């Protein structure tokens, strides 16, 4: 996320799929496929920080051409619209620069000094990135290889996630850790029933959504990977409850003797 000075957190998603950008740590080097799912990205920041190199914050580096072409930090790349609810216009808002959250440089060295990373490293990273982008494949981190990466990329490019950075000014956007959901919680079975540590079922207790351990594990497979399973397992849990009530047992005994009250997975669904 970007944290603006008033404390507002700007969720950072599409910017990391933009073609002409890369993210550097405190050493001025890339450390991940920038377009990776945000859970993976945040884990890489945490692990990188633990290695002793600053990764919180890290910096998204881009150029003025990208700012004129793509949505960045909520700014729309259209002519200035008075009283628009989001930033518009062709210049980076002065308030952004004044905040210190966005830095500007007319050379790699100037930008590096502004964000406190070694100038020679940032230049080398930019030159390497541009070379890979010109060739159309990110040999270092495979950015652009997956459909997830491509989703917010630029479909007019051979590789929607790669384009060399062009002329300055260059910009650096400070990235901190944001917070979407824990992915952690009570472990459940296929009917959303809560499990004990020994995998036995806690009778009558169900968990879905953020209260349950995510069915996707520690990663995020794509948009809706939290709400989708929450709705699905809410439905599954409700069906299971309906199938296991005393009334359901009565129905089953009178109408369908072999209906699976004890093993609802085999009942009609
Ligand atoms: C910025 C952002 C963007 C997101 N985008 C997506 C997306 O695009 N797709 C997607 O799938 N997911 C997205 N998510 C994640 C998704 O919104 C959450 O995973 C989902 O809303 C969780 O639903 P929930 O019902 O489990 O929990 P919540 O929505 O957190 O509901 C829990 C409820 O319990 C209430 N509560 C808490 N304590 C108590 C108490 N003691 N007594 C009574 N009530 C209590 C809370 O007030 C709250 O209403 C996003 C999340 C954020 C923050």
Can you describe what's shown?
The chain is of the alpha+beta class and 269 residues long. The protein folds into 2 domains: 2-175, Alpha-Beta Complex (Flavocytochrome C3, Chain A, domain 1); 193-254, no CATH class. It is 30% helix and 12% strand. Strands 3-4-6-5 form a 4-stranded antiparallel β-sheet. A two-stranded antiparallel sheet has the order 1-2. A two-stranded antiparallel sheet has the order 7-8. The chain is elongated. The two termini are 41 Å apart. The structure holds flavin-adenine dinucleotide (FAD). The site of flavin-adenine dinucleotide has 13 residues, from α7. Flavin-adenine dinucleotide is lined by residues 11, 180-181, 209-211, 223-228, 230.
Structural class, from helix and strand content?
alpha+beta
Instruction: Tell me the β content.
Output: 5-15%
Q: Within the CATH hierarchy, at the fold level, what is the topology of the largest domain? A: Flavocytochrome C3, Chain A, domain 1
- What number of domains? 2
The averaged pLDDT comes out at 91
Note poorly predicted spans. Answer: 256-269
Describe the biggest sheet? 4 strands, antiparallel
Q: How does the overall form come out from the CA principal axes? A: elongated
Radius of gyration: 24 Å
Query: What spatial order of strands do you see in the largest sheet?
Result: 3-4-6-5
What is the name of the CATH architecture of the largest domain?
Alpha-Beta Complex
Q: How many beta-strand segments?
A: 8
Give the SSE string: EEEHEHHEHHHEEEHH
The CATH H-level superfamily of the largest domain is: Succinate dehydrogenase/fumarate reductase flavoprotein, catalytic domain
The CATH class name of the largest domain reads Alpha Beta
Helical content band = 25-40%
